[in-house]
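ok new one. same drill as before - structure tokens go in, u give me an amino acid for every spot. 280 of them this time. try not to just spam alanines like last time pls lmao
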């Protein structure tokens, strides 16, 4: 007689659940779990909210720093709500720290959970081409510092937590207006705009692979801090040349706070996942 493993239905909160990564995560979890979303529409749309609500998902359009509608204890909180622009964090560090640090504290203190999953960034390391989880962080932008501060509060107040330091995520639904959506820009823009000489190196991870990794790590009961990426560096100028298809490439001044090299070592991740990751 075959035994079928029954999936435990969990109560899950996804902050920033209407955004690029958050909406992919919700779509992957919604059929098997009870999902609540909190989102302020800063990087998302009311149309996405309406679509999720039609599917029976609770959506609260609110600021996690100021209001508290969702109630009860959650099995897991995936905290994705954040301000993500490096350049704007330099121009307005108060806005950045308010959203990323105070927002994280508010979620941790206001919404009880058994497990807290914090989406951080490779920006916490500063310059690096083989940054490991044990390396000392050295962020060079307010954004990187705010994500590092969120990590500190996560470790301070959460007993069971997972901190994910993400590489550059790309894929369907990424916002082309975002400074981080390099691939989306290169797909659509004419001419292709590069800040600096294009010698910057980045690790590009497909959002579908990211979601597979997040779910796998969560189901594996992994705790602690982990780098999330492919570990493969790509020069921005090489990517532009590959995708240009006859379009002109122009250069502008390097943006404030931008890293030249931001590549993380993913040996610890490769010990846990058992599936291949898409390469650029």
């Amino acid at each position: 007689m075959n035994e079928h493993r029954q999936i435990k239905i969990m109560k899950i909160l996804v902050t920033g659940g209407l955004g690029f990564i958050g909406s992919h995560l919700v779509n992957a979890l919604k059929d098997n779990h009870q999902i609540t979303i909190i989102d302020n529409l800063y990087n998302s749309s009311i149309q996405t909210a309406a679509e999720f609500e039609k599917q029976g998902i609770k959506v609260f359009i609110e600021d996690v720093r100021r209001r508290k509608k969702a109630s009860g204890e959650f099995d897991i909180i995936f905290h994705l709500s954040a301000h993500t622009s490096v350049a704007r964090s330099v121009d307005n560090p108060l806005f950045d720290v308010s959203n990323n640090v105070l927002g994280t504290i508010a979620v941790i203190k206001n919404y009880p959970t058994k497990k807290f999953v914090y989406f951080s960034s490779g920006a916490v390391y500063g310059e690096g081409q083989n940054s490991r989880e044990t390396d000392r962080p050295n962020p060079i932008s307010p954004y990187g510092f705010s994500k590092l501060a969120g990590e500190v509060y996560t470790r301070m107040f959460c007993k069971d937590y997972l901190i994910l330091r993400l590489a550059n995520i790309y894929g369907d639904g990424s916002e082309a207006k975002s400074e981080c959506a390099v691939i989306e820009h290169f797909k659509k823009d004419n001419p292709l705009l590069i800040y600096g000489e294009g010698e910057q190196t980045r690790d590009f991870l497909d959002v579908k692979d990211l979601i597979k990794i997040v779910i796998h790590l969560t189901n594996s009961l992994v705790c602690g801090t982990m780098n999330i990426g492919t570990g493969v560096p790509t020069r921005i100028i090489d990517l532009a040349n590959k995708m240009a298809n006859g379009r002109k490439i122009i250069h502008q001044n390097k943006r404030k706070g931008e890293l030249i090299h931001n590549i993380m070592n993913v040996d610890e991740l490769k010990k846990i996942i058992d599936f291949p990751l898409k390469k650029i």
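The domain at 11-174+205-230+264-270 is CATH 3.40.50.720 (Rossmann fold). and btw The mean pLDDT is 92.
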